[in-house]
Amino acid sequence: MRVYSQLLVLALTSSVIFTISASEIVQSKGHFVDKFRQLEESLPTPNDYRNAAGEPGKEYWQQQVDYKINVTLDEEKRRIEGEQVITYHNNSPYTLKYLWLQLEQNRFKSDSIAERSSTFYGVDGSVSATNTYGDNAFAKISLQDLRRQQFLADNNLGYQITAVTDTNKKPLKYTIVGAQMRVDLPTALGQNQSTQLRINYGYNILEEDAVGARSGFEHFPDDDRKGGNDIFLLAQWFPRVASYSDYEAWHNKEFLGSGEFTLEFGNYDVSMTVPSDHIVTATGVLQNSKKVLSSEQLKRLDKAKKADKPVFIVSEDEAIANESSTAKGNKTWHFKADNVRDFAWASSRKFIWDAQGYQQKDSNNPHVMAMSFYPKEGGELWQRYSTASIIHTLKVYSRFTFDYPYPAAISVNGPVGGMEYPMISFNGPRTIWHDDDSRTYTLSEKQFLIGVVIHEVGHNYFPMIVNSDERQWTWMDEGINSFLDGIATREWDPNLSWGREPSDVIEYMKSNVQVPIMTQSDSVLQLGPNAYIKPAVALNILREVILGRELFDFAFQEYSNRWMNKRPTPSDFFRTMEEASGVDLDWFFRGWFYSTDHVDISLDRIYKLRLDTNNPDIDFERRRQDYQGKPMPYSVERNQQSGQKSWVELNSDNLDYHDQHDQFSVTNKERNKYNKKHAELDEWEQQVLPRAIKEDKNYYVFNFSNLGGLVMPILLELTFENGNTESLVLPAEIWRRSPFEVSKLIVTDKDNILVSAVVDRRGETADVDIENNYYPRQIIPSRIEAFKEEERKGNQYRDIMHDNKEALEEPEIKVKKK
Questions:
Q1: Coil, helix or strand for 695?
Q2: Would you list the DSSP string of 317-386?
Q3: What are the Peptidase M1 membrane alanine aminopeptidase domain coordinates in residue numbering (predicted)?
Q4: % of the chain with per-residue pLDDT over 70
Q5: pLDDT digits (tens, 9 = 90+) for 55-71
């Protein structure tokens, strides 16, 4: 039997013996969980449309839908009337008998699935409508909810479809199903064929502040104009053909509010007729600038193309003067946009307009106009930061993906807090008005504006160009975009708090309202943490911890370019990131995207061990020193302190052999046994063992527990007695054979004596419990706040006799300006 080659024996200083062998860890029957099971088992089978590398396959196809639209904005009625011609190109290998269109405005009708399936939430956001107050239970409803109910009840909402015909105005059969419409084609549409249809429609525009939508109008009753003014943000404003794809056929999931949309690329030719004193901005390029802009505005716009800071096309003074305009008549603004998946626009006489050109190296699109439109309420905040944030976004995002392919990038201030469309975004932060007519803004509003502009402009890349399905997989655009906007905000100002770091997702990941990231958007319980923050943090960790920047950036750019102007699915992203990086990431994507596990790695204990030499003259003396180093029992210590002598001490002249020797005394029998075993060692073993004994290194066994279920690398920081520190990364694969508990042997030089260790000291893996990361355990800093106990309330505590003596006062009503 080869003693040393088969078994390495390490001794604890407490003389407990541990044996570490190469045998596999035995798991209890029924408890095995394979956290490293290959993701391919769950992903769709690769095919000629999407191959196993995550690329578009050799037979990849997608549809094209072109629109020619004429629309009129009735400001007084706050209504849209439109007529559009749709040209549908069937590039699929399948024959289509009908087309499905999205009618998102129908989502706000009282009989819509969205309204009828909405649930009641208390003011505190809890699912339960009741709150206990003494012995009584009551429900709460906010004034905002009441305002919404009243607006929906007082207004006729949703589309009024007045005609669906072919281009010869021959009626086509159509069926409206909630927020969708099926148009039956008179002749089935074969591969590489196209068809046209004409739709006439109208709808009443939502008041966004009342309803809470992705578009609508905002009213300014205090403007110096009879009846006040409005800002109109128009999106999801025309019937749009739903997507038809290789992996789902018709994308006709009902619009319920959370799931945004997925659309086809196409060319848009749109004419918007608005009041003559309005300023309009939209997706695309203005075609009739000489008709709708003054000569001075045209000069300013030309100057802005090469300016090094924003140039006012419409100044603040001009916009304020325009607020009181009583001009009559209408004006038509004509825009065109090529190869975009949607079209949005904004219109108001209140707009200040500034612009600055952005130059990039792309020979196909070297010049981009960054532009901002905002009322005086945006003030200095918007003047300073909106257009600057647009340009910063283009610089950062293009570095990680591709050069910006559109001619314009636009930020518009209005009632929508943040929403994105091709080339144009709606962003909400504003200044604060004071009684002296001055305006200021808080640090929070500044950070919000910069962050939201970066985020919404960044959506041009995801999903406006990399065209993912937002209704099914919200994280593919919101999560990926949030990851990139986190990079962009850190490059703007590292002190910006924008919620993309691992610590920002901890509370959500350990909560009981978490659902997998891959959950369909309308079924997610908390959309912000689930679709934005958690996937952004996951990608941040993948870049900074798992792959490193070089591998991640290469793979991410590969994904972006592969799917530019195409329609990727999650499997395409997962496969591309793994294939291009060359790293098995199935465990990472399965854990972070398909489960609700969280990260909680506990460093349970560390054993310090020393290599036994098996030479009794060395090992027995070590054990004697360990024994003598143990604390003395209280009874023995106090006997000595009192001067009490033991029997052995009192009878030193009458001691036997065992009194003169102890259990650590070496005998010749043990020496002979050692010599015999040493002689049986192979030549190489006789070289290895003496060297190990001479080096006398420190052997530490670390015991870890995975309490959260999510396997991750173990980031260790070791601190030694001499003050030095060392960082180690134990890869996630350490959990392969046991996802619950693992032990790791770490060997240090003789002089590097370990005094403490910590897992993930910098908080890079979203570990939810830092208390069990330290060994030895640390005092965890927190705070305590003194408070005054609240006075009891309730009807039985009212002093109605006293309160009724108080005089009745007429309330003073103040209207807060925005």
A1: helix
A2: HHHHHHTT----SEEEEEEEEEEES---EEEESS-EEEEEEEE-S-SSS-EEEEEEEE-TTTHHHHHHHH
A3: 396-592
A4: 91
A5: 999 999 999 999 999 99
The CA distances from residue 618 to 138, 177, 697, in Å, are: 78, 87, 15
d(C-alpha 265, C-alpha 752), whole Å: 63
For residues 233 and 355, give the distance between their C-alpha atoms in angstroms, rounded to a whole number.
19
- Residue 792 identity: R
Is a pLDDT exceeding 90 seen at residue 128? no
CA distances (Å), origin 694, targets 3, 305, 322, 380, 611: 19, 75, 89, 73, 10
514 contacts 461 by C-beta, under 8 angstroms: no
Backbone phi, then psi, for 326, in 5-degree steps? -120, 25
pLDDT of 171: 97
Integer Rg of the chain from CA: 36
Among 463, 84, 424, CA closest to 264: 463
pLDDT of the residue at 4:
32
Decide: 497 and 451 in contact? Cβ < 8 Å: no
Distances (CA, A) of 617 to 8, 666, 675, 720, 787: 19, 6, 12, 30, 67
Higher-confidence residue of 686 and 446: namely 446
Phi, psi of 414 (to 5 degrees): -170, -160
**Are 9 and 17 contacting, i.e. CB atoms less than 8 angstroms apart?**
yes
**Stretch 163-174: mean pLDDT:** 95
Pick from 373, 369, 371, 330: nearest CA to 348: 373
Q: What is the DSSP string of 135-157?
A: TEEEE---HHHHHHHHHHHHS--
**463: preceding bond cis by omega (within 30 degrees):** yes
Taking every pair of C-alpha atoms in the chain, what is the biggest distance, in angstroms? 128
Query: What is the DSSP-derived secondary structure letter of residue 526?
Result: S
pLDDT range class, residue 817, cuts 50, 70, 90: low
Using the predicted structure, report yes or no on whether residue 705 has a pLDDT greater than 70.
Answer: yes
Residue 61: CB partners within 8 Å, gap ≥ 6? 49, 91, 92, 93, 246
Share above pLDDT 90 across residues of the chain, in percent, rounded to a whole number: 68
Average pLDDT, the chain: 89
The span from the CA of 345 to the CA of 80, in Å, is 12
List beta partners, residue 699.
609, 747
pLDDT digits (tens, 9 = 90+) for 575-604: 999 999 999 999 999 999 999 999 999 999
Q: According to the 3-state scheme, what is the secondary structure of 165-196? A: ECCCCCECCEEEECCEEEEEEEEEECCCEEEE
The amino acid present at 740, given as its one-letter code, is: F
202 forms beta bridges with 81, 160
| pLDDT interval class at 154 (50, 70, 90) | confident
Residue range 499-548, pLDDT digits in tens: 789 999 999 999 999 999 999 988 888 989 999 999 999 999 999 999 99
Beta strands in 36-113 (DSSP E): 64-74, 79-90, 96-102
b or e along 117-148 (b: 16 or more beta carbons within 10 Å of the residue's beta carbon)? eeeeebeeeeeeeeeeeeeeeeeeeeeeeeeb
Q: Which residues fall within 8 angstroms of residue 180, CB to CB, at 6 or more apart?
A: 100, 101, 102, 103, 242, 252, 254, 255
Which segment of 346-360, 443-457, 607-621 scores lowest on mean pLDDT? Answer: 607-621
Q: Peptide bond before 739: cis, by omega within 30 degrees of 0? A: no
CA atoms within 13 A on the CB side of 520: 10
pLDDT band at 262 (very low <50, low <70, confident <90, very high): confident
* Residue 339 DSSP SS3: strand
Residue 586's alpha-carbon distances to 37, 125, 571, 599, 727, in angstroms, are 7, 35, 11, 17, 26
Q: Helices 570-581 and 549-562: crossing angle, nearest 10°? A: 140
Please give the model's pTM, rounded to 2 decimal places: 0.89
Q: Are 192 and 90 in contact (CB under 8 A)?
A: yes
Tokens of 222: 């205090």
Q: State the Cα–Cα distance between residues 567 and 631, nearest whole angstrom.
A: 70
DSSP 701-734: EEEEEE-SB----EEEEEEETTS-EEEEEE-GGG
Q: Is-contact 67 266, C-beta < 8 A?
A: yes
